[in-house]
Amino acid sequence: MLIEIRAVPPFQKNGFVVGCPRTREAVLIDPGDEVGQLLDVVAGQQLSVKFILLTHAHIDHVTGVAEAVRALHAPVYLHRDDLRLYNAVPQQAAMFGLPVPVVPAVDHFYDLDKPLTFGDLEVHVHHTPGHCPGGVCLQIGTAGQPGRDLFVGDTLFAGSIGRTDLPGGDYETLMHSIRAVLFALGDDATVYPGHGPATTIGKERRTNPFLKS
To answer: Given the DSSP bridges, would you call strands 15-19 and 2-6 parallel, antiparallel or unpaired?
Structure first.
C-alpha cells in the first residue's frame, strides 16, 4: 500500500494519499492547507483518485477540499453527523481569524455497512464520535482482509487523545470510541492521526497516559 503524508503550518494537520500500487487507484484523506502537496503526490505517482474521504469536519481538515475537487473531480464523503459542522466552516474560520474557505457540497454520507473499494484495497468506516459528532476511523487494507492501517482523524494521537472542549465534543463518548471501537481493531494496527506521528493501537493501549485504567 502506498501511503504519503503531508502537513504544513499553521495547523500542521496531516493529509494523506493512500494508493493501490497495482492499479494506481487512490483516495485522498482530509485535504487541508497541504492540499497542493497532496496533489503533487497524486500527479507524481500517476494516481487516479476515486474518493475524497473526510475523518471529520473541523476547519483544518477541510480547507483543501474545494481545490481537491476542482483538480480531481472525485466525490466527497463525510459522516452525516458532521454535516452541521461542515456547513459551519465560515463560523469556524471566524473563530481563528482566518479567511473563509469555500467548501463544496458533500456528495455522499458514509454507509458503515458497505466498504469503499479502490484498486485492490477497501475502506471500512467506523463511527468514532467524541471529538466531534461525526468523527470516523477509516480502516484500510487489502480487500477481504482486516485492514491494519487506521486513519483516525483527531480521535487518538501518539501519547494523547482528541480534545473535547469544542462544540459537539464529549469526553465520555470519546473514551468509548477509543476503547470500544479503535482498541477492537487490534494491537498491531498502525494509527495515522490527524496531527503528529504515527503510532500503534498496542503502544497507545500500554503507554498513553490518558488511557491508563
So the answer is: antiparallel
Model confidence pLDDT, tens digit, residues 10-48 = 999 999 999 999 999 999 999 999 999 999 999 999 999
Q: Report the 10 Å Cβ neighbour count for 167.
A: 12
Q: How does pLDDT run across 100-145, given as a tens digit for each residue? A: 888 999 999 999 999 999 999 999 999 999 999 999 999 999 999 9
Q: Which helix (H) or strand (E) holds 3?
A: strand 2-6
Whether a cis peptide bond, with omega within 30° of 0, leads into 10 is yes
- Domain 2-207: give its CATH architecture: 4-Layer Sandwich (3.60)
- pTM, whole model, 2 decimals? 0.97
Beta-carbon contacts of residue 121 (< 8 Å; ≥ 6 apart): 1, 18, 20, 25, 140, 141, 142, 143
Instruction: Give domain limits for the chain.
Output: 2-207
Nearest to 167 by CA among 84, 71, 73: 84
Question: Strand, coil or helix: what is 27?
Answer: strand
